[in-house]
Fold these 3 entries.
Entry 1:
Amino acid sequence: MKLEQAQELYTDYMEGTLSPAMRLALEQHFERDAEAREDYKAFRLIVASFEKVQPLELDPPSGFRASILERVTSQQAVAAKPQSFSFANTIRDWFSGSQIRRMGSVGVATVAVAAVVFAGFHGRNSTTNTTFNGNMGPTIPTNSVSTTVLGVSMKPGDDGNQYHLFRVHLPASIPEATVNAEVLPDPSQITDTAVRTAQARPALKQAVDLTNDEELQIPVALLQAVPADATITLLVQWQPTDNTLPVGEQVVFTPANPNAAGTTVPVSPDSSESFYSALQFISSAYHVTIISDTSAAPDLMVNGWSATTQPADAVAAVGQSSGYKFRQVDPQTYQFYK
Amino acid sequence: MSPDEAEMIRRCKQGDLSAFNELVKRYEKLVYNFAYRLTNNYDDANDIAQEALIRVFTAIKSFRGDASFTTWIYRITTNVFLDERKRARAHPHTSLDEHVELEESSIVRQIEDPSPQPLAQIEEKEVGNILSQAVASLPEYQRTMVVLYHTEQKSYEEIAEIMNLPIGTVKSRLNRARLALKEILSPQRELFGN
C-alpha cells in the first residue's frame, strides 16, 4: 500500500468505520512500514491536540450590532418605493426609511424599524390683532421633566430626501417601554382616538422596544413642496414594560420648512381653539418646535398676539391659560409638560 | 426551534427590524466567534460576521425551517467567508503567511522562527495557539471543515448541511485537511507528544 493510499483511510481508521478488510490491510501496512506507523501517529496526535484549543468567548466589538442594523435599515430605505397618493388626503402614503436608536452615553447605535415619507402638513395663514405679555418659566433641569421627544433635527437621507429626525428618549422614570409613533394630519386627532385610528399614519412599521439608555430617531421626510408655514405633527406613545408604571404620550409640532421662518404673521388662536391647535399654531407661526405632554386637553383663554410678539410670549400665554408648565429647551424648541 | 424563536423569525420575514435586532443579539456572539476561527483576525471576523448577519436578514424569507436555524446561520457565515476569500484572491497580495492553493492542497510559504522553543515551557495553551495558527493557514475549504468539526463541534451530517456537500465528501475533505495540518506542523512535531 502506498503512503497516499494509506493516508486516505486515516480518519475512518481512527473512528473505527473502516471495513474489516481495509482495516486489516492498513494494520498490516503499519506493521511492515515504520515510517507509515509514525505518519499515522503524527496524524492522530494532531487530531487529538484539538482538545487543547481553548474555546472562544469573544464579544463582538463595540458598535457591532448597531452597524449591522444601520446597514440593514439603509438597505430597506433603498429597496422601498414610494407609493401613490391621493390629493384628497393631505398625507402621502409612506415608505420605509431608517430609524436609529442610539445608546445615550456611548454613542452606540442599535436600530429598528421603518420610517415615513410624508407630504402631510398643517399650516394656516393669519392676520394680526392684540398684543399680550408673558414670560417664560424658569429653566428646569431636563431630568425633572418627563421628556420623551428631545427635539428635531434635519438630515439628508441616502434616498435624496431631507429627513426630519425626531429624537425620542424615555422619561427618566421609565426604564424600558414599547414605543410607537404616528404622524397626524390634524391636531384634533390627539384627543380624538377614533379620528386618529382612521387617519393617522404610522411613523414606525412596528412598535419599538426602547430602554432608557437609548435614543430613538424617527425620520420623516416630505415628498413635495409645502407652504412655508406648514408643520409636521408627530405623536409618540410609550407603554412601559413594567405594567405598574403609567403609559404616556407626547406630541411634537415642528416646521416642515425650518429655513422658511418669518413668512407668516403671528395671530392669536381663537378662544375656541383647542390647546393642541394653539401649539401647532405657535409652531407654524414662529417656526419653532413645540413639544407637549398629552395628559389633558384644557380649554384656552388666550387673546392672541401681534407681529411683534415673541414666541416665548406666545408659549407663556398658552401655558398660563392651560395650566401646563413650559420651558425653552433650546432657541428653537419649547416644551409643555404637567 | 423554540416558539419564541419561530415568532422572531416570522417577524423578521415581515421586515420587522426590532425582531431582527433581537435575533442579532441572540446570534452575534456565535457568528463573530465562528468568523474569528475562520479568519484568525479580529477585523476580518468583524467584517465577515456583519456581512453574514446582514445576509441573514436579506435571505430570511427563504428560510423554510428544513434545517435548524443555527445550521442555516452557519451556512450563511461560511458562504460569506468563502465568497470574501474568492474576492480577495481576485486581488492578490503577498504576505508572510500567504499560501498558494492548488485545488485542495496547499503550499505554505513559511518564514521560520529561529528563536528557541523549550519544550518544557510550551504549555497546552500555546500548543492550542500554534494549532489555531496552522488551521488559519489552511486553504479556505479545508479550514472551514476543520473549524466546523473541531472547534464548532459540528457532526458530519451538520457540516454536510452547512456546506451543501455529501457526507462522504465532508469526511474525505476533513481527512485531507488533517493531513495538511500534519504537514504544516511536522517541524513542531515534538510539541504534540509522542
Note: DSSP finds eight helices and 14 strands in chain A.
Entry 2:
Amino acid sequence: MSLPTDPDRTDPAGVRSASVLSWGLNAVGIAVVAFWFVRNGLLLHHPAWVWAVGAVALAAWAVREGARTPRVLVAAAGVMIAAGSLAVVPTDSLLVVPVIVGLVILGADLRLPVWTAAVAALAAVVVVAVTATLAQTSVQFVLGVSGGLLLGVLVGFSRRQVRITTAQARETERQQQRARLLADRSRASRDIHDVLAHSLGGLVLQLDAVEALLEAGRVDEATRRAGEARALAADGLAEARRAVHALRDEPQPGQPEPNRASSPSADHASGLTALLDAHRSFGGEAVVQGDATLAVLDDAHRAAVVQVVREALSNARRHAPGRPVSLSVIRDGDAVDVVVANPLPSGGQGVLGMRERFAELGSEATVEAERSDDEFVVAMHLPVDGTRDADTADAAVAAEDDRS
Amino acid sequence: MSVQLLANVLIGLALVAFLAYRQATWRSLDPARIWRGPLVMAIVGVVVLAQTTTSVTTTDVVFLGLEALLTVGVGLAMGAMTRFRTVTTPDDKGRTLQSRTGWLGAALWIVLIAARVGLDVLGGHLGAHLLTSTGTILLVLALNRAARALVVDQRIPRGGDRSAAARRGMMVR
C-alpha cells in the first residue's frame, strides 16, 4: 500500500506546482514588460513616482517567480495588484499585466476566500479610475482595463476549480486505498484464524488423546498419536508460513481478483481428501458423498471450499466432538453444491470468515451456515469451471462409480 | 420641502426600517434559493441601467467602484455575522433552517444606506450622475445580497452534518 509521494501533491496553494512552462512564460512576461516599461518611460519621460511604482510591481512579479511559501506568494500578488494598478494609466495600460497576474494568483489560492480576487479587482478598478480621472483619460480606457481585470478574476477562479477538483480526486483515491488496506487486513485476520484454529484445535484434541492413552498405559498408541500431533503441528507451521508469505507478496497487477481470495495453502489439488484424512486422524468421523477432489472447480473456488470445509470440520470437532459429520458434494448441472452438516450448533468468527471468503470470489458462489433442525449445516453452491469440465468428466464419473 | 419629497423620504425610511427589522429577526432560509434574490435584482438593475442614456465618466467609475467595494464589504460582514438554527416545526414550505443577521447586521445595513446616500451627494457634486439611477441602486443591492449569499452558502449547516459552526450557530442567542 504505497501512498503517492509526489511532493507537489501536498501543496494546496500550488506554490511549487507551477510548471517549468509557467515559470518560463512568467520570466518572459517580466522581461518583455520591463523592456517596454523602460523604453516607453524614456520616451514619455515618466515622473519619478511612476518609475518607482512600476519598478515595485515588476519586482513583486519577480519575487513571485521565486516564492517558496504561500504567504510570500500572496504578499507578492498583493503588491503586484496595488503598485500595478497605480501605474496602469501613466504607462498606457502596460502595467495592467502584473495586476492581472496578481489577480490570477489570488483567485487560484485555495487558502484565501473565494471573493478575494473579485474584491481586489474592484479596488484596482477604483485606483485606475481615480488615476484616470486625475489624468483626464477617457472612460473607455478605464472600462477596457476593467475588462482585463475581470478576465484575470475569471482565469483565477477557473484555476481554483481545477485545484479543488484535483484535491477531491486525490481524497477519493486516498479513501479507496484505505478501503483496500482494510480489506487486506480482514483477509489476513481470516487466513490466520483459519490456519491457527484448525491446527491448534486439532493439536489440542490429539494431545488430549495422548494424555488419556498415557493414563491408560497404552504407550504404543500414545506414541502414534504424538507422532500424528507432531505432523499436525508441522503442517500448521507450514500453513502459517505460507499464509505469511502470501500476505507479504504484493498481488500481481494482471492477476484476476478471485485469486486474491485464495487461501494460505497453495496446494489444494487434492481437494477435500487431505482435510478429511486429517479430520479422521483427529478421531472425527466423516461420511462423504460425491467427488471430494472437487475436480470440476477452478483453483480459486476450490481453495474457498477447502477453507470453508476446514472451518466447518474444525467447528464440528470443537462443538460436537465424536459425532459424525456428513460431507456431500452434489453436481447439479453447471453448478456444484457442497454441504457439511454436523449435530449441534456452531458459529462465531469462522462463519463470518466463510461468508467473506465467498463474497470475495465475485462469482455466483454462495455459502450459507446456519442451524437447521438439530444440525449445523454449511451449504456451498459454486459454478463449475467450464475449462475443466470436459477434462475431468471421466474423473467425476469414476468418482461416482466409486461412491456406488 | 414638498409633500412629494417628504413622502419619498418617509417611504424610503420605512423600507430601510423594515429591512433592518427583517435582518434582526429569525427568517426561514432555503439554501437552494439564496442566490435567487441577488440574481433577479442584478438582472433588473442591468436592464434598467442599459436604458439610462447618461454618458459614463471616469468619475462615475470611481464612485461605482467605491460603492461596490462598500456594499460587498458590508455583504461579506453580514454573511459572516449570520447565525443559523434549526426549528423542530417546519414552516408552510417545509423549511426548518432559519437564519438571522442580528441587530449588528441591521445596524450595518443602515450604515450601508447612509454611506450610499453620502457617496451619492458627494458624487453628484463631482459630476458622477450614474450613481443615483435606479439601476445602480439595484445593482448595489444585488452585490450586497450576493456577497452575503456567498458567505452564507459556505457556512450553512448542511443536513445531518453537525459541524462545529452549526452547533455554534444553534447555541447563539
Note: The interface with chain A takes residues 56-62, 65-66, 68-69, 72-73, 76, 147, 150, 154 of chain B (CB under 8 Å).
Entry 3:
Amino acid sequence: MKRTPLFSAHLQAGARMVPFGGWEMPVQYRGIIEEHRTVRAAVGCFDVSHMGEFEIEGPGALATLQRLTTNDVAALEIGQVQYSLLCRADGGIVDDLTLYRLAEDRYLMVVNAGNIDKDWTHVTTAVPADGARWRNVSDATGLIAVQGPKAEALVGRLADQDVTRIGYYRFAHGKVGGVAALISRTGYTGEDGFELYVAAGETERLWKALLDGGRADGVAPIGLGARDTLRLEMRYALYGNDIDDTTNPLEAGLGWVVKPAKGDFLGRAAIEAMRAKGPARKLVGLEMADRSVARHGYPVVKDGAPTGIVTSGTFGPSVERSIALAYVATAHGAVGAELGVEIRGQAKPARVVKTPFHPPKVKKG
Amino acid sequence: MANVLPDLRYTREHEWAKKEGGRIRVGITAYAQEQLGDVVFVELPKVGAKLTAHQAFGVVESVKAVSDLFAPISGEVADANAELGQKPETVNQDPYGKGWMLVVSPSNAKEWEQLLTAAQYEEFLAQGAH
C-alpha cells in the first residue's frame, strides 16, 4: 500500500486510515458529516497527493493530446484548466482528468490515483507521441485541496500574490506559506477553492501552514469520506463508481466534454454512433423517500421490473436526505420518474431529480 | 478504548442488553457506533414483532456502511425507539441512553446468562475482535 507525504501527519491528527485505490488514506478525522459541513460553511484541507500527474512537452504535445482526450485542447489557453476524458476505441472511459496548459508546448495531466499505471500505459502506447515526451511526475508531486467559502481568504493570506485574480478553472504559479506551488482554482466539492500542487517534500510544510494559518477561519483536515459526500451532492462523477471502462461519456452525462468537431480522437466513432442512436441508459440523480442509503450495485426497479443499477449513494449532509446516482433505462430516467431501489430485498421508493442535488458555489468567471 | 457500562450484558456483534424489571432494553455499544461513524438511518421492527436470539432484527446505516443489528435475546418487541427515525445521530451521541433501540419481552430467560458480561465484552474488545 502506498502512502502520501502526509501519512504521519494524518496519524498524528487521529485520522482513521483506509485502503483507497492502492493507497492508505484518511477516511475521516472527526466524523464525515462534521467535516462535510466544515467545507460547506468554512474551509477544509484535503490531502489528494495520491492523484497522478503526467507532463507532456514538445511541439507534438497538442496533437498527441487531441488524439488522446475528448475535449478540445486547442481551446485551452496557457494558465487555463480543462476537464476531459481518456476513452478507449469503443468509447469506454479509461479515466476522467484535468488538463493544465503550463506553456506553449507543455501540459500537465492530472488523473485518478487508482488509474495511474493503467493511464500511463494508455497515454504512452495508445497514440504515438511524435515530437513530444511524457514524464510521470506523480511521486514527485504533492497535492492539497483547500475548499470552502473561506478558502480564498485563507490561501490569499498565505500567498505571495493576489489569488482573487485567479478565475475558475485557471491557475497561477506562486508561493503559498513560503512553498512554491501551482495555484489552481479548481476542486471536487462545489465550493470555491484551490488545489495546490507542490513538490512532494514540501507537502507537509504547506499542510501545516494552511492548518495553522486558518485557525480563525475554522479550518480542519477533511477525509475521503466527506470528499465523497461533497462531490456526490454536486453529481461529480467518481471513477470506478459512476464511470469506468464499460461506460460511455454520453450515458454518464459527460457529452459536454466530448468535442467531435475538433477532429479524430480515440473513441470518437463509437461515441458518435451512440449519439446518433441515443444512449439506451443514462446516469440520473435519485432521491430516496426515506433515509435508507442506496449503495453502489443495488438494483433499480420500475414497477417491480429491473431498469438499472445504483453507482453511488449516500446520505447528503447538506441536502439532508438520502441521494444516489444510478444508470437507468433512458425511458425511465426523466426528472420526476418514480422508481424503486432494492434495499435488503425491498423496493424502496426513489424519484429521479435534477442534479446537482445542492447548488454549486464555485467562483464565476 | 470505548466505554463499556458495568451493569449491562453484551453480544459479540456489539449490542448491549439491560434488565428493566421483566423486560430487556437493547441498543448498540459505544464501540459499535464509533466503528460505524455517523449514523444516518436506523431500521427497527414494529411493536409486537418476534425476535430470535442471534438473528438480525434491523439495520443501522452510517454514511460509509450498513450493518445488521442482532437480537441479544428471543422475545417480542414491546417498544421501539421512534425518535431514531428523525434523529439517527442520537445513536452516536448517546448509545447507552437516548440512542436505545428496542425494549423486548423475553421468551427465554436463560438466554440472559449466555450474554457476555461487561468484563467479558471488554476482554473481547481488547483482543481486537470485530
Note: Chain A has a mean pLDDT of 97.
